[in-house]
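I had to read the description of the data format several times before I understood it. For illustration, here is how one protein appears when written out as sequence plus structure tokens:
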Amino acid sequence: MPRFSLLLFLFFLRFTLPAQNQCYDDFQDQNLSQHVLWQGDTNHFVVNSARQLQLNLSAAGSSILWTQLPIQTSDTLSFEFWLRENFSPSGLNFGCFYLYADATDLPNAPNALYLQFGESGSADAIRLFCRVQGTDSLLGSGPLGDIAAPFSRAIRFLHTNGTFELWSSSTSVASQELLFDGSLNLPINAPYAGLYFVYSAANADAFYFDDFYFGKALSHQNENLILTEIMADPDTLFGLPAAEYIEVFNAGAELVQLKGIKLQDGNTTCTLPSYWLQPEAYVVLVGTNQSSGFNQVNAIEVSAFVSLNNSGEVLRLLDQENQIIDEVNYSASWYPDSLILTDGISLERRSLIDPCSNEYNWSACQGILGGTPGQCNSMNDTLPDEHSPTLIDAKVLDAHYVALEFSEPIDSLTLVNANFIIGPDLGSFQRLAFSYNNCINNAQCILVFNQEIPKSKPFEIQIENIADCWLNFTTMATSTVRYEAPTNGDLLINELLFDPPNEGEDFVELYNNSQKYLDLSGSGIHNGQDSIYLTACKISPQQFLALSSDTHFLTAFYPFALQENLKEINLPYLYNDSGTCVLFSDMTVLDSLHYSASWHFPLLPDSEGFSLERLNFNASTQDPENWFSAAASYGGATPGRANSQQSSANPIGDLSLNFPELSPDLDGYHDQLEVTYQMNAAALFASASIFTLEGQKLKDLLINESIGTTGQFYWDGSTQFGTLAPSGIYVLYFQAFSTNLGVFFEKKILFSVCYKA
């Protein structure tokens, strides 16, 4: 950038300063005398519906608007404002902003410093002039032609003893670039600032002005903005308006301009209007026409305001670059169970100094109005957290993932640099994945291993140098990795030997029908009279586990027995003719079977030594049709491995096409593909899609749609984009399922699309 220098040999004449050391006006109050006392041709201006100051005349002329400045000579001073000229400037249509002037008649002040916006010709640029004893000198100029057309600019002029900088942007102060800078000695008696507009009749209402600030230079850092209160389910029951609102607090030490800052929920992003938020002050954000009733509260209306979910969602404050300033993933579960109703009661941030924004730092408002909009929260904690986090639990999620649960949310950056000690040796972890970002509502992270976790082998995890969002570090956190306790449907009885050969023992085989790594400690087997409990017993997803009083007999007698899936326990006696086998965990029945020897294959000469095998995991345990004698070719039993006798995982169903070729050209020949189905079950849902042979989905025909036992659906050859599918071979993939049976039936059918010449 070019630099300009000017030495003004003038003496500084002192004058009395106002007590206030800064002034600002965004015209939100529609008043020209409240924040800043504007004087001069005030009757020439109005505050428009956008809360901007606008020239409001119809005849050619000129207008002056001025105010007295609270000048501070010891600081770097800043002028900030937004200016719009809705026309192409010229020598008869231009605007000036006087930064310093020694008289209220700005264009005729003997000494002044001013910015001019527009001039004769087409080389219009933003120019800085200094007037000394009536003589104007150019100090600096922006790019030629920059404002030759209608324009709007956010302007910032910084003035330090001996230097100046002029910054400009067409959007916001936060995105400004330096136009020019230079040297400036300005010891002049210049207590006034203001606007001077010159205009023709056509442009007498085409000047706009907003977002004025003068005082100590601001950093324009908005990281101190925090979300402090959420009213998602308003009600007039306690006296507050029936309006959703969000409260924002400025925890910093300087003014923050909210213009351009965004508020975002799961579905909507809205942009905040111009508003200067004072240090350590609150502002309440509401929707359009919702501010009435918030008496004595700084409430601003936001167009296209977010719609807050009563159950909870993620709320974010974003800066002009869409970077997160603050966020909270609130939930209705944060209200205490003792609360009879939550209508009309807000969620409040407990501590304004706590960097965490999670359920530990939010609670239901305890104020008599159900909320404290624009005021100090009812739950206002001021003591910092001085406690280090602890590792509460570690549990296996699948073959490579362990979930670590901490006593409080963890700073994810410290997890990246933490020391992990795994014992016994399981290999080093590949990476860390986190369920949430830093300090957001969850104290869980995921540890990923580069090899499979041993199926029934306990191990310990130790972590050093982790910290919470207060950066309270812990030296060592330790937990033994545990498997989950089974719940109903997780564990099934899969095979039963109740009539063993002489000198042999019964066995019960279990199957893990879930995706969980299960800890069977506390689970047991009951035969109707006696019970046994399992200890130190774990089972992986889709693993078989055979329990017997003599596992050596099983491996010796049955050639397909799988040793690693056998566990020796004192199994209760299973009666030979008929009996009961109940699988339970913590007094909850997981599965039960009332078996009978009559279920064996009737052509077996002798069922002794033959087990009963389950045919289908999705069919009822108690259905006799779901059990059959183990195959003789497998030795009569398969303890610890998949059964010799298995039916399809899908009970009977059928799916067919009316013809194998589709020609969707509306000529009356095979224009629609008709798909007919028949299911031998009720209360089913279905999904159906068309795919290419390469596996690309072309269109969904059914999406979790309720179906009857028989029916049809159709495809007209169109894709998800509305175009017709090209000629070629395609796949119809159909799946029927229910909430209790899981996948009931699935089928793939090939067909072709061919257009007649």
About this structure: DSSP finds two helices and 57 strands in the chain. The mean pLDDT is 85. The chain has five domains: 3-216, 225-364, 396-480, 491-634, 653-753.
